[in-house]
Amino acid sequence: MNTQFSLIQSIDALLPQTQCGLCGHRDGCLPYAKSIAEGEDANKCVPGGQPVADALASLLGRDKLTAEESVWPTQSDGRPQRMKAVIREDECIGCTKCISACPVDAIIGSGKLMHTILTDLCTGCELCIPPCPVDCIDLVEDLQSVPTDIIRIAEQNDLRDRYYSHIQREEKRRVDRKGPVVRAEIDTALFAQFSAQSTAMPDIQVAEKPEPVAVKLDAKTTIELAKIRTQIKKLEKQLSVREDANKRQMLEQLTAQLNALQGASA
Ligand code: SF4
Ligand code: SF4
Ligand code: SF4
């Protein structure tokens, strides 16, 4: 394990793992940890507040800086108030957009059905709020008592695991193009590189999209295909204006012919 990797891991261990991107690193805590190791100021983690900024300064032997301010009041442990998201379920249209946006998979529900947030898992990161088309997600104060250091570390480790599973699933979905990819694409390669260096981190693999099979067509087939496509387009245009049984049948035949020719040449 190299020194730089150990340093990034130590920095990451102090970050809350909310994966909110408020530090300016869209993809969450690990990219910020890497950037801190490379020299970025260590006071930008908003949910971590002053305690995290100070802990990082001590770890790195740097001057203590004032932490980036949160919009929430400060709790008894010096960190900003913990929040939770709640869906107004009677207004939810079941579009599933919030599921993909939640970095720790704290939302359950499926297409066209009401969605619910698993309160225990929610970190109040707010990432589910912008994608909701009907604006039915609220943030409320987390009324649970402030966690002890041991509980917080266990929570952080769990959130990191959940985020890495989320990244792996989103990566697969991005490649398969299934479901909405609401959040900007995560730099999976960075996480894969780090997870490969430690058994403590869940494994992440960059999913490879199969290369499209190169199809070589002879000149005759190419001309034939172009002709069929032109006829199909013409018929589709005509049918969009007025339905005609003969033309519909012709369109179906031409489409089948096109598929057969393409299949034969693949
Ligand atoms: S929890 Fe802190 S370090 Fe992690 S993404 Fe949010 S602001 Fe950045
Ligand atoms: S439910 Fe929303 S606020 Fe809670 S962790 Fe998921 S994305 Fe963040
Ligand atoms: S984004 Fe909003 S409307 Fe869509 S499933 Fe989530 S809570 Fe419901």
From TrEMBL:
Domain 4Fe-4S: 3-62
A Pfam entry, by short name: FeS
Keyword Cell inner membrane: yes
Highest taxon listed in the record's lineage: Bacteria
InterPro entries, sorted: 4Fe-4S_dom, 4Fe4S_Fe-S-bd, 4Fe4S_Fe_S_CS, Elect_transpt_cplx_RnfB/RsxB, RnfB_subfamily
Domain 4Fe-4S ferredoxin-type: 83-112, 113-142
SUPFAM superfamilies: 4Fe-4S ferredoxins
Keywords for the protein's UniProt record, in alphabetical order: 4Fe-4S, Cell inner membrane, Cell membrane, Electron transport, Iron, Iron-sulfur, Membrane, Metal-binding, Repeat, Translocase, Transport
Coiled coil: none
Cited PANTHER family: ION-TRANSLOCATING OXIDOREDUCTASE COMPLEX SUBUNIT B, OXIDOREDUCTASE
NCBIfam families: rnfB (TIGR01944)
Protein name: RnfABCDGE type electron transport complex subunit B
Species assigned in the record: Acinetobacter cumulans
